[in-house]
Amino acid sequence: MKRARGAAVSALLAGALTLLPTAAAHADGIRAQQWGLSALHLDQAWHATRGRGVTVAVLDTGVQEDHPDLVGNVLPAKDMIGFGARPGDRTWGRHGTAMAGIIAGHGHGPGGSDGVMGVAPEAKILPVRVILEDSDPARAKARTTRGTALADGIRWAADHGADVINLSLGDDSASAHPEPGEDEAVQYALKKGVVVVASAGNGGDKGDHVSYPAAYPGVVVATAVDRYGTRAAFSTRRWYAAVSAPGVDVVIADPDHKYYEGWGTSAASAYVSGVAALVRSAHPGLSPAQIKTLLEDTADDPPAGGRDDSRGFGTIDPVAALAAADRLEPEKLSPASYPRRYFGPGPDAPRATASAADWAAPLAGSAGGVLLVVGVMLWRGRRHPF
């Protein structure tokens, strides 16, 4: 994504936003269309935990806090951009609200039976606005300048209670480069015990370019599969793939209170962040490295040889991950800058090395390193243009 001073400015709604015809779908039919819930056996995982006590930071385009499927689960937001669309505008918060719903939606209506149910429905969402929606008119005027919104947002989330950071965003353009400030921010979060999850990219049919922040060390990277466990054609294949998760025909909540089907590795990242929240809820002492390894080691349907660049170690399995976590002892984190008894507020910001400075480049806009092309609108049987 191209970035403005102090702000990353590209939203992650990839490609053309095309509405497709759909059969009638009433609110009580939305849950039945959430195939990811049954594919991941979340009804079994919820016997152990539903994510209570965990905060997932959603670094995105904003989150609608009063959406009926999210109300009560959304903490006060932080805006790292400061311009562009505002809450209530049609070009604000669509992608972020969709991701928050996948992670921590609790549905609505009697017993929460209607609407979108998330992976960790008792987790809290910490919204941090670091990008603009693709349709935000402010994008055009912001493309020529740089900023640090993503790096700043990661650090802010790590300092304000995040247990998991979800990055359903990225740059997988042909000119993508690692940015030292973002790499350092990721390492800062990891050292503070925060699990960092990112989408692999949507460039599987466009050259499989490396995507950032997915390629930064320590990140749990999600690729996308369909309901049959097959890699989605758009899902980027690279060495950093850790696990796969649902990313095709995913039902999402929208600020307009309607429901849509979308696709992308952004959705897969949100699923993985939700599972990480379940593990952290049940075992708060586990380190980010332990949780990353745990998710990889317990993945279902591993590829031949145990791992490949298409699906990582296989499809994430929350039930197996929670069971295996019961057998782990937490690893103590070592402070980065306070080796004695006084630990202070957290590790100091790492200093960029000479070699890291050579990496510096703006995070370019990308239609491939992102989530979600909104597809089928599901709302009380109506067919309606986007």
TrEMBL record:
Gene3D superfamilies listed in its UniProt record: Peptidase S8/S53 domain
Residue ranges annotated for the Peptidase S8/S53 domain, each copy included: 51-314
Molecular functions per Gene Ontology: serine-type endopeptidase activity
Membrane topology: Single-pass membrane protein
Secretion signal, residue range per the UniProt entry: 1-27
Transmembrane portions of the chain: 359-379
CC terms in the record's Gene Ontology section: plasma membrane
One GO biological process term: proteolysis
Pfam family, one: Peptidase_S8
NCBIfam families documented for this protein: T7SS_mycosin (TIGR03921)
Keywords, alphabetical: Cell membrane, Hydrolase, Membrane, Protease, Serine protease, Signal, Transmembrane, Transmembrane helix
Record: active site: D60, H95, S266
Localization in the cell: Cell membrane
Source organism superkingdom: Bacteria
Record-given protein name: Type VII secretion-associated serine protease mycosin
Family: Belongs to the peptidase S8 family.
